[in-house]
Structures are given as C-alpha cells and as structure tokens.
Amino acid sequence: MAIDLNAEALAHLPQGVEGPAYDRAALSAGIVHIGVGNFHRAHMAVYLDRLFSTGADHDWAISGAGVRAGDARMREALERQDCLTTVVELDPAGLSARVTGAMIEFTEIDAAKLIARMSDPAIRIVSLTVTEGGWFVDAKTNGFDAAHPDIRHDAEHPDAPKTAFGMILAALRQRRAAGDAPFTVMSCDNLPENGHVARQTVIGLARLADADFADWVEANVAFPNTMVDCITPATSDRERALVRDRFGIVDAVPVVCEPFRQWVLEDNFPQGRPALEKVGAEFVTDVAPYELMKLRILNGGHAAIAYPSALLGHHFVHDAMADPRIKAWLEALETREIIPTLEPIEGVDFEAYRRKVEERFSNPEIGDTIPRLCFDGTNRQPKFVLPVIRDALSKGQAIDGLALEVALWCRYCAGTNEAGEKIAPNDDNAEDLERRALAAKDDPQAFLSNEAVFGDLGAQPAFVAAFSKQLGALWTDGVAATLSRYARG
C-alpha cells in the first residue's frame, strides 16, 4: 500500500527510499527561490538536501516562491506534502528514489508577502528559475526589453510590481532603507552568462524608475554566473504512477531526472553561501568556459539531433540515438566543428564530456522526446547554434555541418517529415517559419532574411552559401543521405 508523502511519512518511508538525514525542524531559510519547477527540485534542492545530510549549513534552507498561476498550483501541491519532493533518478542500471527536504516553506503567491520575505536579513540569496524566455531579453539586440508591458508597469508602479524583478527591487529598497545588506541574485536558468542577464534585467528595470537606486544596486548587489545541468522531463501521470507503484509513495508532483548533475558557480557571494563544494558543485572565478562547453556540446547537440530525428520519424530521444545515422551525424558535427570552437579548460577533457553527453542522450529511462527538443527553435537556435557559427567563421573554421543543422531546422519548419506526414506546430512563430521555409526551397534567402533570428548572419556570404548547399541537398537527396554524406566526411 502506497503512503501519502508528508512530514509524518518520513519516519516510515518504503524500503529502498532515502529520506532527509537531518532534522528539518532545525533548518532555517537562507535562500528564497523563485520558480519552483521540476528542474529546481531535481538540481539545486538536491544539492542542498545532500549538503544538509552532511550536518552542514542548516541555515541555508529554501523558501519557495513564485509569481505565476502555475506557481500557485505548485505551492498548493507542495504545501499538502509539507514541501517534500520525491526525486527519482532514471539510471539505466537501476532506478532510485530519494525524498528531499531542503525546502521548508512556500510563500503565498502575493507580491507583498514575497517582498516581505525577501526583505528579511536572514535571506542572503534570491535565486530564480524562470525559464529562458522569462528574463525580458530583447531578441533583436540581446539587451534588456524595456518596452515590455510588464516592465513598463513595474517601472511606473515600483511599489506594486507584477514581475519577479520588480519584487526583487522592492525588497532591495526596503533592505537599503533599513540599513540591511542586500541579498545576492542568482540565476539558475540555462542561459549564456545568466548572471549578466540577471544583472541586466534587474538594473535595467531599476534605472527606468530611479537612477540613484539603480546606481546603488549596480554597486552593491552581486549577480554570479552559474552553469546548471541535469536533464529533467516534465511530470505527468506516468511519473506519478511510477513513484506510486515502484516506490510506494503518493506524490502529487514528483520529479524524475537523469543521474547526472553539474553545477559550476562563480564564487561571488558577498553575504555568504552554502558550502556546496562538499557535495559536488564547483566554485570557480570564471564560469564562461564551462558554460560554453555545455551550451555548445550538450545544448548544441540537442539541437543537432532534434530536427533530423523528427524528420526521420523518431519520437523518443533514446530511439533517435539508437539510429546509427543520427549518432554518426552528432559525433561528426561535435568532433569536427563544435569542439574546435572551444578554448581549452584546465583539467577538462572535451572528448570525455562529449561521450558522456552521448551516453546521457541515449538513456532510455528518461523518456525525453524529440518534440521537446524541437520546441521554440526561434529562441533556441540563436542561443545554442548561431553563436557557434559566428565563432567558427571568425576563426576561419569549417561550418558545413553547422549550416546543415540550420538547414535541417528549415526543412523541419516546412511542416512535413520525410514520410510526408504533417508536423504539429511547435513554435510561437510557426506560421511565419513555415512560409519562409517553403519559400526557401527556391530562394534560401527567404529563410535567412528573418533578422529576428539571424541578425546579420543571414547575409554573410560564407554562411549563405553553405546553408543553401545543405538545404538543396536535403530537398533533393533526403535527410538520411545528406546526414550520411556529412558523417562520412
């Protein structure tokens, strides 16, 4: 008989399920985390749970928070189970389950209450996981989107903000007025230079309302860069049933994830930090090289397999990786064109990291899907692929495979797979992308002229020529033959 997850259940968890090896009643919050989704609970919360189990840093527990309707639903579910989460690691060698207890509360979804919580001097870090698109970045300039309606509202009503960033600023104003030290703002989102993006958004919003206060934030608030990594699928009835039937726990919002985790942080925490290095996190002076490695090899790798896999009819990522055409294409692209754009990192073997990424993609237990990898190419291509092309061009390196990746995205956007079956729209700009992709059969520039995606890259002759060649091959020879030709060299 499965047991309901709550604090009382910790005393009699089913055999084989680990629980917190510490007294949760002795924990106190030192971190407010905004955006308590699956990734946060599979990553940051697990690191802290493991740290607390060593007996260290019990004043760094998590106070959950959110600002969206979905956060309210998560809060309701977690409150019912005393903020506990079952985390299942999907290791092909054998699944394991752990109940984590690093979160001790979840603030009501109310701006005033969240501001008050962040104003407490005991809170020394405010961290956020608000998705790649939640940072108010202008797609054309990559700068702060000062024209967004929510940003305009917060600039005009700083005491009644709608956004997490407006609430952060309101709390910082209160702390400044009280003479309390400011908290550190830490992004945990999968963004290049996420600390710089956080700084840009917070200070950009502050400057719209109060230049003097913006100067104070700029001079006194730390925004460390971080690199985060752990493949974490969405939770559905399938995962809830797995936790109930396999591990004997009824959890409304369990998390399943791969057994691999990585967290590299810039060591810039003026008000202190938990000793996460004791449980595998890495603190460095410069995160950028590690971040670039991950963004290009892992995220770029996801982009590389997404579109050919969809065009060849694969649904699951592990099935795509079992297709020798996809596996050979990925290995050739990463080895020949992606890894050569990276500068060496002392103590890091890029080829070993690439092999680990390939192993992770091939894990059948994760159940990650090709439609998820294909989602939102309009935002993902400029983050994970196009910068690699720009870098390779600047260094005089090969881009044939990288151009093929973009051509595969274009071919996918045309709306049918190789069997002629319709591909469901998977991008907010799907209609425009399909129109451009179909026109590109005869005029490749029709796709590359999308300046919101390509900027000036779409007019660079070397890239235009390589893209045109590869797109023509895809329409003439087909996906399989074009991939194989590239993999053979």
From TrEMBL:
<dbReference type="InterPro" id="IPR013118">
    <property type="entry name" value="Mannitol_DH_C"/>
</dbReference>
<dbReference type="Pfam" id="PF08125">
    <property type="entry name" value="Mannitol_dh_C"/>
</dbReference>
<dbReference type="InterPro" id="IPR050988">
    <property type="entry name" value="Mannitol_DH/Oxidoreductase"/>
</dbReference>
<protein>
    <submittedName>
        <fullName>Mannitol dehydrogenase</fullName>
    </submittedName>
</protein>
<dbReference type="InterPro" id="IPR013328">
    <property type="entry name" value="6PGD_dom2"/>
</dbReference>
<feature type="domain" description="Mannitol dehydrogenase C-terminal">
    <location>
        <begin position="286"/>
        <end position="475"/>
    </location>
</feature>
<keyword id="KW-0560">Oxidoreductase</keyword>
<feature type="domain" description="Mannitol dehydrogenase N-terminal">
    <location>
        <begin position="30"/>
        <end position="278"/>
    </location>
</feature>
<dbReference type="InterPro" id="IPR008927">
    <property type="entry name" value="6-PGluconate_DH-like_C_sf"/>
</dbReference>
<dbReference type="Pfam" id="PF01232">
    <property type="entry name" value="Mannitol_dh"/>
</dbReference>
<dbReference type="InterPro" id="IPR013131">
    <property type="entry name" value="Mannitol_DH_N"/>
</dbReference>
<dbReference type="InterPro" id="IPR036291">
    <property type="entry name" value="NAD(P)-bd_dom_sf"/>
</dbReference>
<dbReference type="InterPro" id="IPR000669">
    <property type="entry name" value="Mannitol_DH"/>
</dbReference>
<dbReference type="GO" id="GO:0016616">
    <property type="term" value="F:oxidoreductase activity, acting on the CH-OH group of donors, NAD or NADP as acceptor"/>
</dbReference>
